Amino acid sequence: MTPLETRIYSRPPIPLADISPLEMLLLTNVLECSETDEGLVLFTDFGPTNPIRVPRSELIVAFRASSQYAEDPFNIFIADRVLALLPAGSNTVEDDVMIDIDLSQFPWQFVVQGIVARSVDLREVTVIQWMNHPSQRPESYGASVSLITAKTIHHATSEDLLARFRLEDKALPSAASSAAASEDHNALTSDAAGDLFTVKQLETALCIWEAMLYFRGLNQLGQPVPDNIVRMSEVWDAVGWQAMRSHVREIVPLALDVHEDVSEELEEEGFTFDFDFAPAFVETLSWSEDGAFREGEPEEFLEDVMVAVRRHRQDVVARTTSSFNPPSCQVGS
User: Can you tell me the distance from the alpha carbon of 282 to that of 274, in angstroms, rounded to the nearest whole number?
Assistant: First the structure.
């Protein structure tokens, strides 16, 4: 069976200083890589290689040179599943034999995630993958995108994205109905019209609600939370769940306006809407039984949101790094 042709490109380049010798050995054998002034560019025009074959001597040298990263998941993987299977001693003939390393249980994306997690400057790595069959059959085309951060690896195929676009398209009025009801549409100021959310507004509301539930849970567990969150929990207990859901709907426009104002900073520093901005926005809001509101000057509020974004990311990365346990796996034959 003829395999799919696969092309992969990632960005930004990974700073060379952030890559251990063992990681460099793996990445340059799994993918075609290019060293630039900015760092190591990961790409391939043929698809990733697995299993990889490396000289035993190179593997041992790279492993020893990466001893400062002994607790990293990839180093543990190599130590437990590869080096333990190698013959003892340092015979030259044995050192020069080729070793097969099956990465099915530890894909190269996990290695990149480990680099991002401990890097001071690298916030994320994006991966774009394109595939097709040599026959060029239309149904053989496909693509995927991945976002690798210290917290997780987000992934979506082209079919996933198209399905999402179709859902968004269904929420849009057709051209015919828009033209026929343009006068009514312009006059829609009733409460019923206010109940209609776009997909973007709905996703914003869900992200805010998720952040509120998270912070409420921390407060109920007795974990340290900002005073604004303590006040939010008090309001929650006083007005109930239905009222709090209504308050979420009311602050969606404010959230989108604030996000638009700080979007360039978020993008430059590699922050996301759901995991970074939404919790920081909720944390910065002030609360009363009438709902959430922005306190102080708008510029000060934006600054406070960005401070919360950066602090929240640092806390998450610290927790993730300290609690990362690699999956149990075996090297394939």
Answer: 11
Residue 75, CA distances (Å) to 60, 108, 281 in order: 12, 13, 38
Question: How many angstroms separate the CA atoms of 103 and 331, rounded?
Answer: 7
pTM for the full predicted model: 0.50
Residues of the chain short of pLDDT 50, as ranges, are 1-2, 92-93, 181-194, 320-333
What pLDDT is stored for residue 195 in this prediction?
A: 53
How many CB atoms sit inside 10 A of residue 69's CB?
A: 19
Q: Which residues contact 270 (CB under 8 A, 6 or more apart)?
A: 123, 124, 149
Question: How many alpha carbons lie under 13 Å from residue 9 in its C-beta half-sphere?
Answer: 3
For residue 1, the 8-state DSSP code is -
Q: Quick one: pLDDT at residue 326?
A: 46
Contact partners, residue 34, CB within 8 Å, separation at least 6: 40, 41, 43
Q: Do the beta carbons of residue 98 and residue 86 sit within 8 Å? A: no
Q: For the chain, what are the domain ranges?
A: 5-162, 197-320
What is d(CA 239, CA 177) in angstroms, rounded to the nearest whole number?
A: 40
For 108-169, the DSSP string reads: HHHHHHHHHHH-SS--EEEEEEEEE-TT--GGG-EEEEEEEESS-EEEEEHHHHHHHHHHHH
The answer to whether 40 touches 163, Cβ cutoff 8 Å, is no
Distance in angstroms (rounded) separating the CA atoms of residues 230 and 210: 16
Q: Is the dihedral of CA 83, 86, 89, 94 positive or negative?
A: negative
